[in-house]
Design goal:
The complex is a heterodimer of chains A (about 300) and B (about 210). With about 300 residues, chain A is an alpha/beta fold. Chain A has 13 helices and 9 strands. By secondary structure, chain B is of the alpha/beta class. In chain B, strands 2-1-3-4-12-11-10 form a 7-stranded mixed beta sheet. In chain B, strands 5-6-9 form a 3-stranded mixed beta sheet. The interface between A and B is large, with 43 and 45 residues.
């Protein structure tokens, strides 16, 4: 249907919803922090702290985890309130496979949709056909094959899944290292070995070949899931993330405004330990957190999606 | 790119947030030495500066926090050539509309720039533009882009939108050593606008050497 390997086909006249503007939007977020917010007031705090975008949702992952039940797209009134409150881009989450929620979010004018494992999946076989939308999508991935399958379905941005709502960064590290290692492995293969690599990754050969040649995904790669401190953000950036999502880590902490600002600064100066040290001082309590190991297997969010 | 043993110009890309890598690549393609700039001492070592696309409120805040805003303002005033794309155009504007309260800019361009003027992401678009100084049309990407609402007498309009609902809107301007576009020439693989800027930097450096 749509050629997934091309980022910049010249289009005559004026065109919206192109691959270029969808992937380009994510390029502009690079080096930035996207923050989960549940109220317009939190959205303002995030904007004032230097967030490049906010993720509007009803409950942060830590509360979804604590309260249980089916977790769905947020109330349109709540999303409208956040869109009204800030001038930076507003993202919102749809359930995996729930294309009607995505249609609603697009009609509300959100700037990016996160087809997210943090919400309860609506379809255990199919993800949303993201090519059908003008609004771009970000999707989670735990490995390269998963990232490439999401890009094949039209995702214009990828993030590591991590284990949302835990404050435990270990899964985000695993996912980021896995994706980067699998890319490096592709780079070392002979051309005739890429066909089998594509089969093993369960991803289209054309995409696999592109990744092998360029040494990177064809879309921006952010990190998410368990980032709670400036040093967490700095580590993930050094591991190759191009930007950071922070979910529960900010507004479940003792001093959200100051922590938000500190994570923004640490993301810009991720390779300068003096700056990361300076901004890490006096932040008050981090979110309490739970070890991923203590989360029973059926309740692990990263294992949703495939 | 020109003949002779001339030292390539050294151009910085303000690397607080945004699509820094794309600008570095385009500048190199246009024949410049390109480096990321995050600190005042790095700013002092470049012949010209690009302010990339990104989130203008974030870039502005980080520039203030890390003591770059005043050195940037001084550099723009002293005639260091600067080229801003999208958020970078907002940063170079003397006046902005629809900014957040207290949003600061470097300034220098005698223009009024309206932030997110074309709308939200679903309104982001691609279009071919006619640019003064370029022979063939330029394919431009507009992403939650600003436009220039009013220009001072010394500002040259370099491009306007040629069709669609925003027809006639000003999307590229130049005022002496300052160049700005609403769109993102760094992401389309066409380095002609960067080549124009490299030439501005080259001339400014030559003039400086004569003066000095």
């Amino acid at each position: 249907m749509t050629d997934t390997t091309n980022t910049s086909t010249p289009t005559p006249g004026t065109a919206t919803g192109t691959d270029g503007v969808k992937r380009g939007m994510a390029e502009m977020l690079k080096g930035g922090v996207i923050m989960d917010v549940v109220t317009p007031e939190q959205a303002k705090i995030a904007e004032d702290a230097g967030a490049v975008a906010v993720m509007a949702l009803e409950r942060v992952p830590a509360d979804i985890r604590a309260q249980g039940g089916v977790s769905r797209m947020s109330d349109p009134d709540m999303i409208d309130g956040i869109i009204e409150a800030v001038s930076i881009p507003v993202m919102a989450k749809a359930r995996i496979g729930h294309f009607a929620e995505a249609q609603v979010l697009q009609s509300l004018g959100v700037d990016y949709i996160d087809e997210s494992e943090v919400l309860t999946p609506a379809d255990y076989a199919n993800h949303i056909d993201k090519w059908q939308f003008t609004v771009p999508f970000v999707c989670g991935a735990t490995n390269l094959g998963e990232a490439l399958r999401r890009i094949t379905e039209g995702a214009a941005m990828i993030r590591s899944k991590g284990e949302a709502g835990t404050g435990d960064v270990s899964n985000a590290v695993t996912h980021m290292r896995t994706i980067r290692a699998e890319i490096r492995r592709l780079q070392g293969l002979e051309a005739d070995e890429l066909y089998v690599a594509a089969k093993e990754l369960q991803a289209p050969y054309s995409l696999v070949k592109e990744v092998a040649e360029r040494g990177k995904l064809p879309v921006v790669l952010f990190t998410a899931g368990g980032i709670a401190t400036p040093a967490d953000a700095a580590m993930m950036m050094q591991l190759g993330a191009e930007g950071v999502f922070v979910g529960s880590g900010i507004f479940k902490s003792g001093n959200p405004a100051q922590r938000a600002e500190a994570i923004v600064k640490a993301t810009t100066f991720y390779d300068d330990p003096d700056v990361v040290a300076k901004v890490s001082r006096g932040l008050g309590e981090a979110m309490v957190g739970i070890n991923v190991e203590d989360v029973p297997q059926p309740h692990r969010l990263a294992e949703r999606g495939w | 790119m020109t003949a002779g043993a001339e030292q390539p110009v050294r151009i910085g890309v303000l690397a607080l947030q945004g699509d820094v890598r794309e600008h570095l690549a385009m500048l190199r393609e246009a024949g410049a030495e390109a480096v990321a700039v995050r600190r005042p001492q790095e700013l002092a070592q470049v012949d010209g500066l690009v302010i990339p696309g990104g989130e203008s409120t974030t870039i502005s805040k980080l520039a203030r926090t890390f003591d770059l805003l005043d050195p940037l303002r001084a550099a723009a005033k002293e005639g260091v050539p600067m080229f801003g794309t999208c958020a970078g155009m907002i940063m170079l504007a003397d006046r902005i509309e629809d900014g957040i309260p207290g949003q600061e800019t470097i300034g220098g361009l005698d223009v009024v720039v309206r932030r997110n003027a074309f709308g939200r992401q679903v309104d982001s678009f691609e279009a071919d533009l006619r640019l003064a100084d370029l022979e063939r049309p330029f394919h431009a990407l507009f992403i939650r882009a600003p436009w220039v609402e009013a220009v001072g007498t010394d500002v040259e309009v370099v491009a306007t939108v040629s069709s669609g609902p925003a027809e006639g809107r000003i999307v590229a301007v130049r005022q002496g050593h300052l160049l700005a576009t609403s769109f993102h020439p760094e992401v389309t693989g066409d380095s002609r606008v960067h080549a124009l800027f490299v030439e501005i930097v080259r001339q400014a450096r030559a003039a400086g050497e004569h003066a000095g």
